[in-house]
User: Which sequence fits this backbone?
């Protein structure tokens, strides 16, 4: 592959509704991503997605929302999204979220978020979890990076993609 | 909605490689689905998908494989698939697997399977687990039906869709 | 590629509403596909799709409908569809229609049909046109097989896929 | 719908290889889109896509490339793409291109471009053609806006979306 010329994109995945503590964490993560110069990608909706997008805006960054609907009437983006990518794909857009991100940070729960964690692992993309799902299969727990703070989540995500850039 | 005229479809999701015990369970599940007159849908590949498809064939049923690649050259279907639906969607086809199934039975692990469990829950589709993922978030475990035997998995899947037919 | 074991699938693409003559042609095409032992794939809805599906049923064949919606509530299949594959992908399911078909027969007009002709050509799939779009670019007309009758459309489609089987 | 807060996105669709005259037109269109303050969206690859993206960069605009592959290894973006959205959807990403654009300008030929014209018409999105496909069905020619110059193409696209903003 030739030298990379496109910008780093970090995806923040999380549910469309969340408690204030989770929203504050998502906002700090969005801000941190922007301050490090990367583009923030989310699902473009409310809750964790909106909080992260608001934070990235506050950090001076560019925000992309990848929406499930085919138009703003079907799925309106939150007011902090700069570029709203309506996909018309429903939840298949979760696969786009993962492919389009250099690393994924999952904040909080929700089944959509769980699908994005799983798809990211399937695509061998770096995933960092903050207060999100714990997984176990037949006594085995996948060794996923878990962060305790927003700062740690952002630092870990960038550290995990660094070698491939 | 008018009276239903299309056939019942049960999706069996599982990894492309598995141990003999898991394969035997998947095969029994495929056979049970066929014997109850439903169409079996899988991802069309090897491992759990192939074993379930083989079982459904043995049970005299119709087998559909929903493949990630755009052609048999990219992703060859297993030899028991009757109708191979090449999607050219990569792992976004997991969303199709879920939408196209009246109920989903997840057998064994794998991250693709985990994404299908999550997408099914997101779509409010019945999901039955056999030897598959255990999930937990902040001390809460989603109350998902777990089967101990292939027979129980099949019976539970049909019981869960029955009310909506 | 190993010897092919899955069934031949012929896609019939056309608009969701059409005049009686076009419907009769689509029905004859569906019947012809079934009588030659192939699976009929359509978009699963009304108009040309329904007529072709009805014909294939009358010919004793298996009918697959690939629907844009995520559920029968969103996009109900026509009553002749055996296997309804809800995709939840909107019009992106047109790409699935093309990838899943060994050859495509386009009957009549409509912009969705035009997209399927274009996607089939992009995927280098055989396409046969019956009373469908004429295309021209800068004085050049792509050399696409056009049929005058349903029988010719079916015969041409099978002839074009034969070499690759 | 609440007041729009996300940026205007204009999609420029065209083939991955083209003659110098077509490239010059695409470049002027990209520049014009950027100078009017909108985001340029393309398929992210070479030919018309690259020329339009280069023009938008020169005009000081933001450029988004929606790629068919799941990674830069599969489908490298051209060097003028700021935000590369790898979709892993193959040509199903053409549906995303259309949904994500407020208006589409088609430059030159190619079957992928034709599919995007068709999908845009299906989605009732404004489409402007410059040196692109001519369509006809049973003696009827869809009344699509055709531009003679890059400036006219850009002006027409903005005029067509203006009422909906």
Assistant:
């Amino acid at each position: 592959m030739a030298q990379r010329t496109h910008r780093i994109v970090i995806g923040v995945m999380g549910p469309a509704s969340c408690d204030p503590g989770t929203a504050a964490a998502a906002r700090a993560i969005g801000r941190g991503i922007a301050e490090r110069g990367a583009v923030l990608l989310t699902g473009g909706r409310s809750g964790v997605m909106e909080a992260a997008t608001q934070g990235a805006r506050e950090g001076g960054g560019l925000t992309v929302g990848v929406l499930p609907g085919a138009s703003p009437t079907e799925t309106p983006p939150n007011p902090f999204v700069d570029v709203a990518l309506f996909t018309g794909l429903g939840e298949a857009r979760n696969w786009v979220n993962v492919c389009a991100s250099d690393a994924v940070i999952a904040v909080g729960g929700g089944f959509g978020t769980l699908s994005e964690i799983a798809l990211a692992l399937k695509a061998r993309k770096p995933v960092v979890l903050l207060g999100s799902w714990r997984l176990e299969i037949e006594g085995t727990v996948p060794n996923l990076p878990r962060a305790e703070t927003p700062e740690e989540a952002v630092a870990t995500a960038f550290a995990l993609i660094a070698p491939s850039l």
About this structure: Residues 20-35 of chain D form the longest helix (16 residues). Chain D touches chain B through six residues (CB under 8 Å).
